């Protein structure tokens, strides 16, 4: 920043303030404008398309400046926040007219992407989470916390690694993370890639508010993260945050775990193609009637359950609602009348609530007894907890009913917000205001009578207030003893009388006082409601829960879903005539071909073959989405479903190239495969769609087979593996836990017809050329492709006859040691010679190396690499 030689006192004040907020745009209040100076001005002028001017145009170094009118500031602030910037709002703290010397100014709020609460910016059905990370460098451990300032939710956990952190950030879609110190470059890059703004807040001994909020966190890392989060919130918001709820500890491992890629690939909340909600599972499941319900649904989708009892309890409630159509419709109708309780309560505490908000709060609270009444008509056992938590708060709704005017305006300073009959003094003032006109008319008539001046008028102006005006021609009639002269005009005189003065005091005071009295009363009502914040929040949570459950019931009924049976201790899965819920909704129930997924105790892997576009990945996603729905407590799209409770879902579906981080499809593929192989347990679900496609045929096939063998031998997770390598289907003969299946297709007059029907056994051909034909490729190109295909197939068959046996690369790994063993056992040099007749010294070294190789200690990738090296050496 250019240092000016001589700054005015005001600019000095600006510089001191700006120095405290170097990373924020400083909106500096000057009269009716917020002004920005220097670099802030230059940058803001560009982003907000404002005219850049300068403060002291004639000076040697004019100060760049731009400004926005204060009443329109919110729109500009929203734009800056949306682009990931921070805005410090600096207000005049005293009336400039009354200030002695420089007007006192202070930053009253630092608005940041993670702390926005203005309703315009927030999508009602989305949370806006601010996250915090406490870094313990010594132990390479992390405390993690998140809060939504608009709803008061605060949660904290303890995470072991960077992947865990990024997963949490992704699933919370945080825009800002607060760190206690600088983090590693790797982590910083990950935040940058995800457009997460990094802010800092050092850990200090918690103040009383912070220790109260974090009192129940046993893990000290989690507690520290929550403390820095709360400290950051209070230092930026600069006000009491009474609605922040006591932090709740959570463990990501207490929920069905899905990493970012899996959630992305399965299109749970965002469509891969459009990035929108439409076309996702969230879109399908969302029949919530309230904003809170919408947000809770998203949270449940992010964290499906793994405890049997909790799942059953949600299913019971959904079933109960499904069995009571009329009550359900009634509940839905009532919920429509419930506003966003959570955010309304947030605004009460935050101090930006207005009278209309309170009316919404009242209307929402008035629905609670009705909802309760309807619910109590259903199975009481199933609903007992929710019924207890749905506590109406008549103290709050009655207070608002009595106190707030039904027709209240938005502004809370211009009066007309308090209902009549609520406050005696206010009623007197209002009486004076309405009756004042009448009194003046009466007085005017009385004075005309007394003086006999027919043209005498009572008038008002801002300088003199009320006065009696008499035209020059009549001043002789004015009773001098009662009339005091105030002003002389060209053709009239203005007077006041003691009686008029008295009336004036009553009327003017009434107007002035009633406004400030209304404001005071409003603040008192708000403070009274603040006493009920935690009860209101608890109530909001229960309403949200009821809303999600009715949404599940309603969707389940519309699409004919069934209640799944959960078998937590068994390793079997039976999904009879299952459907992909989103594809079914899009293509229509009639068009959708249902498919069974059957994996008894002894089948771990389904190897799926079939032409492109036949429905392989739809089949795989169908199972994953069904599992997610079941573990959220919803019913599922099938005729019958028996499911284990999965602990994790891993997917490798479709091309999710991480272009920003510069990783190729194949690298991403291998990383995702690695995640699954290393972290999956026997209770996990793995979906691998055409793994190995991103590399050369033999590499890909070798890896695909090795990965299947590894899962079969070591992981035992239920796995769906689709592949276009037909060769691998032979594995069914050697791996007892693997079953082949394929999606049927038939050829009719040279055209392929997809049946979308899953059948036992491997597919007979891949129909690639047929699919290309469907895609409309030129005829002569297709003819040439068929010719090449025919040639390749013939050649392949000849090769097979020559080799007598097709050895897939991994079979080769298994084969070589056996041959080497033979050599070892015979310990006969002639036998060695007969096997390796032209063996060179280098080759011998390789044979020796092979002998020592501990295959069981290697992962498939390492084995492949080693084998490749050896082959390179052998080929010279
Ligand atoms: P693949 O993975 O075999 O290439 P997809 O699973 O992507 O094929 O399916 C291709 C298209 O076929 C889908 O977009 C969908 O419209 C349709 N489809 C898939 N399965 C079914 C089904 N069971 N019933 C009806 N249409 C289906």
TrEMBL record:
Keywords recorded for this protein, A-Z: ATP-binding, DNA damage, DNA repair, DNA-binding, Nucleotide-binding
Origin: domain of life: Bacteria
Matches recorded under InterPro entries: DNA_mismatch_repair_MutS, DNA_mismatch_repair_MutS-lik_N, DNA_mismatch_repair_MutS/MSH, DNA_mismatch_repair_MutS_C, DNA_mismatch_repair_MutS_clamp, DNA_mismatch_repair_MutS_core, DNA_mismatch_repair_MutS_N, DNA_mismatch_repair_MutS_sf
Family matches, as Pfam families: MutS_I, MutS_II, MutS_III, MutS_IV, MutS_V
GO cellular component, one term: cytosol
Record keyword DNA damage present: yes
Main function: This protein is involved in the repair of mismatches in DNA. It is possible that it carries out the mismatch recognition step. This protein has a weak ATPase activity.
Protein name per UniProt: DNA mismatch repair protein MutS
Species name: Vagococcus vulneris
Lineage: Bacteria, Bacillati, Bacillota, Bacilli, Lactobacillales
Gene this protein is translated from: mutS
